[in-house]
């Protein structure tokens, strides 16, 4: 064997490792070794003969194995419970042929001695079996009394102790195996212990034991169980103290992989003066008793350190820790021989050097990769160390380490120590630079978030302090047009959100548009339902706009007018994102709404124009006269008459002088300009996209179809009326259609536009008192007719004609708008 290098020898192949169980290499009886590869098998391997002796087939995946102190019973932990096997069954009989292969035993549920769900680890202390399980809310440590009469007898439950789980985000590694070890005060090991105690039992110095676990545990000479949990907590439980409970000794803040003990000085007489715990990511802690006269006094000293991770498995002898990262096998010399531990000279210097964890932080590579499980080290009389390991490919191999003399340590120690110190400093500098870069990125991100939240606050204040009549700096405008898709016509609204404020609408904003018909047909039950549309957007700067499109109504729908309510929604969830908003937020506090403005789509917006009818010709040709005569004779011969649908109408009368002043028209006929203005005016914040208004210049007639597909005709004529003071020239707008709904809707739309025109013009004309008195009298009469039509004595068949007659009287005799 070459000096300074280790040699690896393959002993057996067990195949690829499973994922449901744990990979283990544990000592057994004599030279036997128990091997688990993550499946349902337990292999019994003889190290002395290098042969496989037996195979145990368990009912479920194996989590842990442990042997009783008298080496007569083997306990195997599976997910569903603990099984017990007599070790004598694993010894082949004399009649068994050596060449026939290992003994195969199938373990049934009859060997189940302790029923427990999700068992993680096992430990035997004297005649007590301990199981560590995880429940939904806590970790449970349960004590059982081992039965010596028969292996199939269930164990008696003695006690159970629990430790609550931490936060689910921290408690994420549920598949990691826990660590269970037992420590004793001094050299007080159980009388039934084997000659070579397993690596899960350690004697501690009485001073360290008393300072860690208290004087009561030390006086009662109680064994103490240490539990290393996947959440990083290292807890302990004294077994012989009444009323004891699980308590926390330390927290590594990462999954605990290994817990062991080491001798500090040669005068320790086989007692360990230091406890060590390793975490999954390489964090480590050394726990020892401080001596009086040194810095820190005589209390317990916790020395924190870190080794290159991740730590897959670990084991240790008296002063060295061997651990695997998966890619390499490393050795850490806890107490370097170069510091002079053999003598008593320079006791203070030696103690100061041991308190420095520099040597602890610098492992030595052994150049062996793929190790996932390690056996307890064995040291020969010549000082050679042998390790048994299980690789990720299921290979059992023996690793022999070279003998390291004191001269080698003295000659190579200082130069290697300098190299390690320089490497540690460079590594620390790199870690600090990386952390500083990460912190700068976090600070930059937080500052950006604060700036964006400041924009949100400014926009909220700007929109909240505006009255309904004021134009808001962030508002919507719309335009409607008819479109055809899949042979179906629909009226679509294009809503444009304009940002006229000096602020930017960043991420987290959503444009909410609610469409609500103000009326609905009787077939729908008389109740109108609203439809809401949401359009998320981000990065809308000052002077910019975003355009969205949504359907308002389909062809044949007469639910007009339609109100379109626009508002801005801000969601803190969308602003922060799921990865940053880790804390649960209240839905009411995480989202708020800012109303903008309301758009109105009426019958004039939804009117589809068509060509006006051709004017009647003054003279007809003989062919036309003949065709008309034949058609009339055919109707008479059939005994029928030409049926024409009933036509309804409504009128609005406006003073021509008022229209010229309000619209700014030149002297002349304003009738054509009035119709064009009615169809192009953006009333209610909505405009109609029309290619061109088709009017007849001589008669001022506009024809089209209403949303309910009824034919509609709009006419505007100048009429001379005689007033008491002087004659007036007025413009009369008339709406005609066979649909009552179309006449009512268009009449209402015309009145809304003229009302808006009057508000803009600010007319101060005086209306004669007599005209107002006559209008009020007429309104009172018609109100009485409506009351009569809706009274109880009138039959349901007479009510619609009465109401229709009142409506026609209102529309046929309108007021004159001066």
From TrEMBL:
<dbReference type="GO" id="GO:0036297">
    <property type="term" value="P:interstrand cross-link repair"/>
</dbReference>
<protein>
    <submittedName>
        <fullName>FA core complex associated protein 100</fullName>
    </submittedName>
</protein>
<dbReference type="Pfam" id="PF15146">
    <property type="entry name" value="FANCAA"/>
</dbReference>
<dbReference type="GO" id="GO:0043240">
    <property type="term" value="C:Fanconi anaemia nuclear complex"/>
</dbReference>
<dbReference type="InterPro" id="IPR029251">
    <property type="entry name" value="Faap100"/>
</dbReference>
<dbReference type="GO" id="GO:0005654">
    <property type="term" value="C:nucleoplasm"/>
</dbReference>
């Amino acid at each position: 064997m070459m000096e300074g290098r280790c040699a690896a020898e393959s002993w057996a192949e067990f195949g690829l490792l499973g994922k449901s169980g744990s990979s283990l290499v544990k000592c057994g009886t004599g030279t036997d070794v128990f091997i688990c590869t993550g499946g349902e098998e337990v292999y019994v391997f003889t190290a002395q003969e290098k042969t496989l002796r037996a195979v145990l087939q368990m009912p479920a995946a194996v989590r842990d194995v442990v042997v009783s102190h008298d080496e007569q019973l083997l306990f195997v932990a599976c997910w569903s419970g603990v099984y017990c096997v007599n070790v004598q069954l694993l010894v082949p009989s004399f009649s068994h042929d050596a060449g026939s292969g290992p003994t195969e035993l199938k373990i049934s549920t009859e060997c189940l001695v302790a029923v427990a769900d999700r068992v993680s680890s096992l430990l035997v202390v004297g005649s007590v079996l301990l199981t560590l399980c995880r429940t939904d809310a806590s970790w449970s440590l349960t004590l059982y009394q081992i039965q010596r009469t028969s292996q199939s007898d269930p164990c008696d439950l003695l006690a159970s102790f629990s430790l609550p789980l931490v936060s689910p985000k921290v408690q994420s590694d549920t598949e990691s195996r826990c660590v269970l070890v037992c420590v004793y005060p001094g050299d007080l090991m159980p009388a039934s212990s084997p000659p070579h105690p397993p690596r899960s039992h350690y004697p501690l110095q009485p001073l360290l034991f008393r300072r860690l676990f208290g004087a009561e545990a030390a006086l009662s000479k109680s064994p103490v169980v240490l539990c290393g949990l996947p959440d990083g907590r290292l807890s302990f439980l004294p077994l012989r103290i009444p009323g004891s409970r699980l308590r926390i000794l330390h927290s590594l803040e990462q999954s605990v992989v290994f817990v062991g003990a080491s001798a500090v000085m040669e005068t320790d007489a086989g007692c360990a003066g230091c406890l060590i715990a390793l975490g999954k990511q390489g964090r480590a802690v050394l726990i020892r008793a401080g001596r009086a006269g040194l810095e820190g006094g005589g209390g317990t000293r916790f020395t924190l350190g870190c080794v290159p991770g991740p730590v897959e498995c670990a084991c240790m002898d008296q002063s060295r820790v061997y651990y695997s990262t998966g890619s390499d096998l490393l050795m850490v010399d806890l107490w370097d021989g170069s510091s002079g531990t053999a003598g008593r000279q320079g006791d203070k210097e030696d103690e100061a050097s041991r308190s420095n964890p520099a040597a602890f932080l610098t492992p030595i590579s052994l150049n062996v990769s793929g190790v996932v499980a390690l056996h307890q080290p064995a040291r020969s009389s010549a000082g050679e160390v042998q390790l048994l390991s299980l690789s990720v490919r299921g290979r059992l191999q023996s690793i022999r380490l070279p003998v390291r003399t004191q001269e080698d340590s003295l000659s190579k120690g200082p130069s290697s120590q300098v190299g390690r110190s320089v490497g540690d400093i460079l590594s620390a500098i790199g870690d600090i630079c990386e952390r500083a870069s990460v912190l700068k990125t976090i600070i930059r991100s937080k500052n950006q978030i604060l700036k964006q939240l400041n924009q949100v606050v400014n926009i909220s204040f700007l929109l909240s302090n505006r009255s309904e009549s004021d134009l808001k700096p962030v508002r919507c405008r719309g335009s409607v047009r008819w479109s055809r898709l899949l042979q179906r016509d629909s009226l679509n609204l294009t809503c444009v959100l304009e940002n006229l404020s000096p602020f930017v609408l960043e991420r987290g904003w959503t444009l909410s548009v609610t469409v609500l018909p103000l009326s609905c047909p009787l077939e729908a039950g008389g109740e109108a339902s609203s439809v809401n549309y949401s359009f998320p957007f981000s990065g809308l700067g000052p002077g910019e706009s975003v355009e969205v499109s949504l359907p308002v109504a389909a062809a044949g729908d007469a639910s007009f007018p339609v109100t379109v309510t626009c508002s801005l929604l801000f969601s803190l969830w969308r602003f922060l994102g799921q990865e940053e908003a880790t804390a649960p937020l209240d839905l009411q506090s995480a989202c708020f709404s800012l109303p903008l403005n309301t758009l109105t789509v009426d019958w004039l917006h939804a009117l589809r124009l068509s060509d006006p009818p051709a004017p009647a010709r003054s003279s007809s040709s003989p062919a036309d006269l003949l065709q008309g005569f034949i058609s009339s004779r055919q109707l008479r011969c059939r005994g029928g008459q030409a049926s024409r649908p009933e036509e309804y109408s409504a009128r609005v009368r406006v003073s021509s002088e008022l229209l010229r002043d309000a619209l700014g028209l030149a002297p002349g006929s304003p009738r054509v300009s009035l119709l064009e203005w009615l169809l192009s005016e953006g009333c209610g914040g909505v405009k109609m996209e029309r290619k061109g208004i088709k009017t007849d210049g001589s008669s001022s007639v506009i024809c089209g179809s209403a949303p309910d597909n009824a034919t509609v005709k709009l006419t505007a004529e100048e009429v001379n009326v005689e007033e008491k003071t002087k004659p007036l020239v007025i413009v009369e707008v008339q709406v005609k259609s066979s649909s009552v709904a179309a006449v009512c809707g268009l009449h209402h739309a015309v009145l809304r536009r003229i009302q808006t025109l009057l508000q803009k013009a600010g007319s101060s004309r005086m209306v004669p008192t007599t005209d107002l008195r006559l209008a009020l009298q007429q309104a009172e009469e018609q109100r009485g007719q409506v009351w009569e039509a809706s009274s109880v004595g009138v039959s349901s068949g007479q009510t619609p004609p009465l109401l229709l007659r009142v409506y026609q009287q209102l529309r046929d005799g309108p007021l004159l708008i001066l």
